[in-house]
Amino acid sequence: xxxxxxxxxxxxxxxMPKIPIRSYEDFALIYTPGVAELVKEIQKDENQSFELTxxxxxxxxxxxxxxxxxxGNVGPIASLPVMEGKALLFKFLGxxxxxxxxxxxxxxxxxxxxxxxxxxxxxxxxLEDIESPKCFFILEELQKTLNIPVWHDDQQxxxxxxxxxxxxxxxxxxxxxxxxxxxxxAGAANIATAQLLIKYGFNPKNMILIxxxxxxxxxxxxxxxxxxxxxxxxxxxIQTNSERVKTIEEAFKGADILIxxxxxxxxxxxxxxxxxxxxxxxxxxxxxxxIYPNEAKEAGAVIVATGRSDFPNQVNNSLxxxxxxxxxxxxxxxxxxxxxxxxxxxxxxxxxxEKGLREDYIIPRMxxxxxxxxxxxxxxxxxxxxxxxRLKLSYREFxxxxxxxxxxxxxxxx
Length: 414
Hints:
This protein is α/β, with parallel strands linked by helices. 48% of the residues lie in helices and 10% in strands. The chain contains 19 helices and ten strands. The longest helix is centred in the middle third of the chain and has 21 residues, at 153-173. Residues 155-384 form the Malic enzyme NAD-binding domain. Pfam families: malic, Malic_M.
C-alpha cells in the first residue's frame, strides 16, 4: 500500500509559490530588478532574512541515514522516504516548511561542515536518524557554532515526549521524582531522556541505564574507555545507579518506572515486569515494542505506553517536534534549550490533565491539534524569557500566530 501510494503521488512533497503571479510585470517585483532591494537590506542586517525571505519558516531535515528507525544504516538515498514523511508531519502538525536533506558524508566532521555551509538558507536544522555516539558530537558542536536552532529529534523529541508522559503517569500512580527508574537501552533516545529527567529534577541516583553489556555503573570494566569513546554515556555511568546494581534482574527488582527505548530485537519478559513495584511501563521501540501492552498489564503494570498510535498512550516524538519548531521559528530563536523542551513537555502534560487523566490517557493524541499551538506558544515564550528570541511577543500573540499557521497548513493539506 505504501509503495503504491508513493508511486501514485511520486513523493510526498512539492513547492508552491506564495505570491500570486497575475501579469508579466509581476516578474519585475518578485525577481529582477526588484529583488535587489531585498538583497541590499539583508546585506546591511542579516536578521532581515527572517523578515524578507521564507527563511523564517524553513528548516532542513539533515541526515546521513546511518540509523533509520527499525532499519539501521540504510544510507542517505534510502533514507529519503523517511525524511519526506517527516517533512509532511512538520507541515501538517506544525505549519513548518521542512526540506529533506539526506547527505553523503564520510564522518562527523564532514557532516558538521555541511550543516555549517547550509545555515544561511534555513531558520533551523532538525538532525535525524544519525547513529550514536556520532549524533551527540554533531548536535553539541552545531549548537555551539550555529546561530539558528539545531536539535536531534531522536534525542530531544523522544525525551520531551517521555517527560510529558511521566509527569502525568506519576500523578496517577502516586510515584514521584525519587522513583526507581530503569532505562532499557542506552542509545540516543534514552541517554537524552535520562539527561532531561535529571534536568527536570528526577533523582539520578535512582536511575539505572542498561545497555548491551548490562547495567551501567561507575566501576564497570569498560567505563574508563567510555570517557573517550562515549563521554555522554560515561557521565551517566558516574551519575546513576548509586547502589551499583550489576544484573538486569537486580535492576528491575522493586523498580517503579521502565523506559525502554532499545533495538527492535530486544524483548522484555513478563517475569521482569512482575519484579517491579506496580510499575509505569513505557515500551517505545517501533514497530514492535519491547513488551506488548496486554503482556505488561498481565504482569502488573498500572500504566503502559508505547510509541505506536494503535495502542493507548502513544509516547512519540511526533507530539513534540512540530510544536517546538513552530515555537522557535515564530520567535526567530537562535537556540533550542532543555528549558524550552521542558516548557513543551509541561504544556503537553497540562493539556492531557485538563481533558481528564486516566490510565489509558496520560498524553494527548496526535489528532488533538490544539495542543500543538499551545506548546508552540510555550516554547516561543520561553525563548523570549531566556533571551534567545529575535522576535519578542506575548504568549497570547504567539498562540494566535501558531494557531493561524498550523490551521492554514492543515487546510492546504486536505
